[in-house]
UniProtKB/TrEMBL annotation:
PROSITE patterns, per database record: PROKAR_LIPOPROTEIN
Protein species of origin: Dactylellina haptotyla (strain CBS 200.50)
Origin: domain of life: Eukaryota
Pfam families listed in its UniProt record: Abhydrolase_6 (PF12697)
Protein's name according to its UniProt entry: AB hydrolase-1 domain-containing protein
UniProt signal peptide: none
Organism ancestry: Eukaryota, Fungi, Dikarya, Ascomycota, Pezizomycotina
Amino acid sequence: MIATVLKIGSILAAAPVGVYACFLGLVVNRYFQAHAVYLHAAQMTWFKDLDFPEMFGFLHNQVTPFSLTTTDGETLYAWHILPTGLYYKHESELLSESAGFASDITKRRGFELLRDDPEVVLILHFHGAGGTVGSGYRTPNYRALSAGKPDKIHVLTFDYRGFGRSTGSPTERGLLPDGIAAVEWVTKVAGIPPERIVLFAQSMGTAVAAAIMEHYALESPATVFRGTVMVAPFVDVPTLVATYRIAGTIPILGPLAKFPALFSYLSTFIHDKWLTGDRIAQYVRANEANGRKYRLTFVHAKDDFDVPWTHTPQLFWRAASAAIPGGITFNELEVEKGSIRRDLGEGGTVVEWQTGNGIIREEIVKYGLHDVIMGNSVVTVAVMRILDSN
């Protein structure tokens, strides 16, 4: 009897270990990794037609669906979203047009309103993992982004390759030309100069935006946009998987992170590492070295269960350290931040760091989760602050 109980107990004890071992086997598989990182198979807009954004709460022809083409031949699905105030001024013209997908967006009235106004600002939007341009909290996010100047701020959002109706499959190497295709459309087709372009990114999109920022900052001649707002960013994929907990409670690879050598070995099997911290540091160094102005804002909610808020202070440190000759340690910077940090009570904390050429801002709000925050006023004001800066 005792032997039977012990045998059953040993089996029950070994079962979780076996399951976890099988999970680790999946983790190192490239196909599994792609779906875990990008979640592109989860559309989340199955019963709605993206070609008719009215289904997502927009006005008739407030949004123009169209496509972008990448240099390597992929077709990306995109939305151009008019700010509500501007739509109201031109409502009769927009109502007279047919709705739906635009095979030639340059013939649409909405595009003309973007191209022909010398005071227009465009938010180039990089969404997070999973879903499409119309999923979840993304539609309230677009409204929050343009709310600060509802007759001037347009939004361009697009689905990366492999997402929604876009062709191809997502990879780190592939998403860079996706972002470049969006930038090239904005600057060359719509004719919006970089000083009137703000990059907004959330979650996985912050990694894509960082790659785009670095790419253009290192070009000759360099291109620096008006500013960037990153919501719920992460340092890199290895750090994210080491800190990620399901529902903020159950760690995935956290137990292995306690064994640095083992975790470092497993990290070599991560194919798309998205080294955002390195890219942001390089972006800051390039701008400081060449005397170019830049604005970089990080926003994170403390109750974010998907990407722990502790990633944002790490990224803030990487950016600030890159602006200081010889750098600064994380702990030294935390001491410096203590003297300039503003405590907003239930609103969280704010640190604004001025460098020789840039402003780096860290906003840690107490509430907002991972996605809800995108429709909150902190996003609206972050954009307004960048536009009002010199």
